[in-house]
Design a protein that fits this description.
Layout lengths: L1 E5 L6 H12 L3 E3 H11 L2 H12 L5 H12 L8 E4 L5 H13 L6 E6 L2 H9 L1 E4 L5 E3 L17 E2 L6 H15 L1 H9 L2 E5 L4 H13 L3
Parallel strand pairs: 1-3, 1-4, 2-3, 4-8
Antiparallel strand pairs: 5-6, 5-7
The structure holds adenosine-5'-diphosphate and adenosine monophosphate.
């Protein structure tokens, strides 16, 4: 199963992808996570990505497509994967089609989590992530039981780009560069939209409903 999880920043893509990974035993491929890992490692890619991320801009297409091409060629993707946060431009979507053609694969479903813009800043500003295992929390909507990660006890942190000013820029970038992909994938006939304003478990149930209706 080759899934693509779409939606604006803060819609809940990562939260839902992490749940589906456990259910279907396929990897989550998050370009945002890959860039954050490169920033932590201090590589050249990390330096380039950090400048873009801090400004709320997209990392250039050729860089992003390159890391996804390498990742999708790995063996653990052979039985499927969940793309989360890629593609974000029409150029990336065209490149993805080519990469999948080369691998003899097709996207099974594009799942777009819809959340109105007015909710997204609160979602991002309240997001907290575990430094150790990457689990995602929200101070109000999905709080951890204590000050550390419920899963592993790791320290929780706030992303540098999860502030109101950067988030506004990220939402503008989404409107200008990523929203056109909705029409792009609607035309491909594999598109489904899910109401992301519902509680996390209900969003998961709706996603699973779409996926089971495939068979
Ligand atoms: P994305 O990967 O789309 O940027 P995340 O999955 O990281 O979004 O979610 C953004 C924030 O919103 C996180 O703090 C997460 O805990 C919270 N969140 C995710 N899904 C929901 C939901 N259905 N209702 C309320 N908050 C949610
Ligand atoms: P995310 O974790 O998906 O919210 O992404 C965080 C940041 O990483 C974005 O604001 C971009 O700067 C960068 N990024 C993530 N995915 C992509 C992508 N597909 N194309 C370009 N930049 C990306």
């Amino acid at each position: 199963m080759q899934l693509l999880m779409m939606g604006p920043p803060g819609a809940g893509k990562g939260t839902q992808a992490a749940i589906l990974v456990k259910k279907f035993s396929i990897p989550q491929i998050s370009t945002g996570d890959m860039f954050r890992a490169a920033v932590r490692e201090g590589t050249e890619l990390g330096k380039q990505a950090k400048a873009c991320m801090d400004a709320g801009r997209l990392v250039p297409d050729e860089v992003t497509v390159g890391i996804v091409r390498e990742r999708l060629a790995k063996e653990d993707c052979a039985n499927g994967f969940i793309l989360d946060g890629f593609p974000r431009t029409v150029e990336q979507a065209d490149a993805l089609t080519k990469i999948l053609d080369e691998l003899n694969l097709k996207l099974t479903r594009v799942l777009n989590i819809h959340v109105p813009a007015e909710d997204l800043i609160e979602r991002a500003v309240g997001r907290r992530i575990c430094k150790n295992c990457g689990a995602t929390y929200h101070v109000k909507f999905h709080p951890p039981k204590g000050d550390t990660c419920d899963e592993c006890g790791g320290e929780l942190y706030q992303r540098a780009d999860d502030n109101e000013a950067t988030m506004k820029k990220r939402l503008d970038v989404y409107e200008a560069q990523t929203r056109p992909l909705v029409e792009y994938y609607k035309r491909a006939g594999i598109y489904a939209e899910i109401d992301g304003r519902q509680p996390i478990a209900k969003v998961t149930a709706d996603l699973e409903g779409v996926l089971t209706s495939l068979h």
